[in-house]
Write a structure and sequence with these properties.
Layout: H1 10-20, H2 24-30, E1 38-41, H3 48-57, E2 61-64, E3 71-75, H4 83-86, E4 90-92, H5 95-104, E5 111-114, H6 121-129, E6 132-137, H7 140-152, E7 158-162, E8 174-180, H8 201-220, E9 222-232, H9 241-250, E10 254-257, E11 276-278, H10 280-283, E12 288-295
Parallel strand pairs: 5-6, 5-8, 6-7, 8-9
Antiparallel strand pairs: 1-3, 1-4, 2-3, 9-12, 10-12, 11-12
Helix pairs in contact: 5-6, 8-9
């Protein structure tokens, strides 16, 4: 469905007006603006210098983002038509959406579990940075996209499986886990005017209940000493801090650890220490949430 003006449900406005107080006008203004275009250099297909040289030759303006050498803003109306994208040398990805993998910071020796992987933009990042990746998704149409992405972007170190990640064999353990959880998608409103047409408080509660089950299962797949990122493009505390607090109560070896992202403004989180809530007006991104969690040895929290 296409609409001419961004739709905001009255209860959405009421909720966030009350939650944000004097921050509401800036927040509301930011989420009505078009988000800037950005891309990630897929080093499976090209080097950063090769992509920069190719775009420069075409007279296309781009700017490196401070949080990672492979992340760039681009000033081009239809980057999806560029040969660099068509051939898989760059992926198009909103800059906040890049941050979970950057914060996870996998190493070339790491085995990573991408639990809700489709459509696959974060999977591309993980393929570039990690040793090997298991990418799962339960939805058949989204899985078709993920399989296509795997082929076009040369994700040879990624094994793809259609399955609810919670049903993967329990003896599998990973160095890193990414849970970019299905959510109420409030942040997508900067991309799609109709994103909030089906939004409701009931939907938020339903998503949160599922997320609480997901985060405990995802955590259980970590090796001792392993780390995971939980992220959403929702601003709802029910889907974010409350989900993290649920995990911390349910798994005594779970510990929130600091996230450092160069050039990204991050405010102190009063609801759950260490969690990162990205306000769209702070970094010109979609609203976003992420947290980094470590599995400590039993009884050790230092």
């Amino acid at each position: 469905m296409s609409i001419k003006k961004t739709f905001f449900p009255p209860e959405f406005i009421e909720k966030y007006k009350a939650m944000l107080g004097e921050e509401w006008p800036a927040f509301y203004s930011a989420i009505q603006e078009k988000r800037p275009k950005s891309f990630w250099v897929n080093t499976n297909k090209a080097t950063i210098d090769e992509v920069k040289a190719s775009l420069t030759k075409k007279g296309i303006k781009f700017t490196q983002l401070p949080f990672h050498e492979q992340a760039f803003l681009i000033e081009y109306e239809r980057p999806s038509e560029l040969d660099e994208y068509v051939t898989g040398k760059i992926s198009l990805q909103e800059k906040a959406s890049m941050l979970p993998v950057v914060a996870l910071a996998p190493k070339k020796t790491d085995y990573v579990f991408d639990t809700c992987a489709a459509p696959g933009m974060k999977t591309i990042q993980l393929s570039n940075l990690a040793g090997s990746v298991l990418a799962t998704d339960v939805h058949s149409k989204r899985m078709d996209i993920l399989m296509s992405i795997r082929k076009r972007f040369g994700l040879d170190n990624v094994a793809v499986k259609r399955i609810d990640f919670r049903n993967v064999k329990r003896n599998k353990k990973f160095d890193r886990v990414l849970l970019d959880a299905p959510c109420s998608s409030e942040g997508v409103v900067r991309k799609k005017r109709e994103a909030l047409l089906e939004w409701s408080e009931k939907m938020v509660r339903q998503k949160a209940a599922n997320q609480k089950q997901m985060i405990t299962h995802a955590f259980d797949y970590l090796k001792e000493g392993g780390e995971m990122i939980y992220s959403t493009c929702s601003f709802a505390p029910e889907e974010n801090e409350e989900v993290v607090q649920y995990l911390l109560r349910a798994r005594k070896t779970a510990r929130v650890i600091p996230i450092e992202l160069e050039g990204i403004k991050m405010r102190k989180n009063e609801l759950c220490e260490g969690c990162v809530r990205l306000y769209p007006q702070d970094n010109n991104t979609q609203q976003f949430f992420l947290v980094k969690i470590k599995k400590t040895p039993k009884g050790v929290f230092d």
